């Protein structure tokens, strides 16, 4: 599984709508509205490297109101949350 963190700049008037539309894109697992250097941060998880272009360049960047994206590809996961999900068997706690 490949994980990419995408920082997204949007038109200010379109932040909520862009976030909702991006969250519906297959491969996008989470979208956060944030303060700082970006308006939104999306977490993209795909199985193959080529799918990153499909999700980010072909879908996320074409959402109305998206002005610019900057993508960071993760090498390793150190979050306990992600490790727990990777080993989950789908059983209820």
Automatic annotation (TrEMBL):
**InterPro entries in alphabetical order:** Dimeric_a/b-barrel, Tscrpt_reg_AsnC/Lrp_C
Matching Gene3D superfamilies: 3.30.70.920
SUPFAM superfamilies listed in its UniProt record: Dimeric alpha+beta barrel
Query: Which superkingdom heads the taxonomic lineage of this protein's source?
Result: Bacteria
Q: Which residues form the Transcription regulator AsnC/Lrp ligand binding domain?
A: 6-77
Q: Which organism is it from?
A: Cellulomonas alba
Write the lineage as a comma-separated list: Bacteria, Bacillati, Actinomycetota, Actinomycetes, Micrococcales
Q: Which PANTHER family match?
A: LEUCINE-RESPONSIVE REGULATORY PROTEIN (PTHR30154), TRANSCRIPTIONAL REGULATOR AZLB (PTHR30154:SF34)
- Taken from the record, one Pfam family name reads AsnC_trans_reg
State the protein's name. Lrp/AsnC ligand binding domain-containing protein
């Amino acid at each position: 599984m490949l994980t990419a963190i995408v920082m997204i700049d949007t038109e200010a008037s379109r932040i909520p709508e862009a976030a909702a539309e991006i969250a519906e894109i297959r491969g996008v697992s989470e979208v956060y509205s944030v303060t700082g250097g970006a308006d939104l941060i999306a977490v993209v998880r795909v199985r193959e490297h080529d799918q990153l272009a499909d999700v980010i360049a072909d879908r996320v960047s074409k959402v109305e109101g998206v002005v610019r994206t900057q993508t960071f590809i993760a090498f390793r996961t150190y979050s306990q949350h992600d490790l727990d999900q990777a080993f989950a068997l789908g059983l209820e706690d």
